[in-house]
Design brief:
InterPro entries: CheY-like_superfamily (IPR011006), OmpR/PhoB-type_DNA-bd (IPR001867), Sig_transdc_resp-reg_C-effctor (IPR016032), Sig_transdc_resp-reg_receiver (IPR001789), WalR-like (IPR039420), WH-like_DNA-bd_sf (IPR036388). About 45% of the residues lie in helices and about 20% in strands. The protein has about 220 residues and is an alpha/beta fold.
Length: about 220
């Protein structure tokens, strides 16, 4: 999930719509609401956040360092001012990157992946047995051959790969894929997506790489 902060509701809604086309869940906040939320949100909710995008906010309304106190997710400023002084002020405030608008959604996703890779020494992909799972929206490969997947199933596989070695609950998967504030979709939809994903992987691999335990959740295995 990506969190977008901007004083203009039309802007947060516009970005949310564009990210949704890429299969990426979002949550939009006004600056005042965001400060209260980020200081009080549960750790499990914050672990579902892939990045924070900070748009037009009053000076001092958003503190990247306040975000950093709660989570290591990248903080990216979206800037409409093309001046060196403004860009330097944004970096001095603690953001990880400054992106000048207009910008394509895929470029933002690529920047997020690059920042996370540098910060956590993450590879651009994860290998699980004969699977190569990319973290930038590309379809996974099995034995070098692409396996086309619907975007939700692909995002679930990416999330499982990013948490390799740990179990994730159905709620954690739902929050990462649909966002923590999506009340229009039932959480049980995760079971349907994972069931379809497991069937496709089993057909290609000859075994089921997703281990599930009731009440404990899911994890990728060799």
């Amino acid at each position: 999930m990506i969190v977008i902060v901007d004083e203009r509701e039309l802007v947060t809604e516009g970005y949310s719509s564009l990210f949704d086309r890429e299969g990426v869940a979002t949550a939009g906040f006004a600056p005042g609401e965001f400060g209260e939320w980020v200081s009080s949100a549960a750790d499990t909710d914050l672990r579902s956040v892939r990045a924070f995008l900070i748009g037009d906010c009053r000076d001092g309304a958003i503190s990247p360092r306040q975000i950093r106190d709660r989570t290591g997710a990248p903080v990216i400023a979206l800037s409409e001012q093309h001046s060196l002084e403004h860009t330097l002020r944004l970096f001095e405030s603690g953001v990880d990157d400054v992106v000048r608008k207009p910008v394509h959604i895929r470029e933002i996703l690529a920047r997020i992946t690059a920042i996370r890779r540098r910060a956590h020494e993450e590879a651009a992909y994860t290998e699980v047995g004969s699977m190569r799972i990319f973290m930038d929206g590309r379809d996974p490969e099995i034995n070098g051959e692409p396996l086309p997947l619907p975007r939700r199933e692909r995002r679930i596989l990416e999330y499982l790969a990013s948490n390799r070695g740990r179990r994730v609950t159905k709620t954690q998967v739902f929050n990462a894929i649909y966002g923590i504030f999506d009340e229009e979709v039932e959480e049980n939809v995760v079971e349907s997506h994972i069931s379809k994903l497991r069937k496709k992987l089993r057909e290609k691999l000859g075994h089921d790489p997703i281990d599930s335990k009731r009440f404990l959740g899911y994890r990728l295995v060799f």
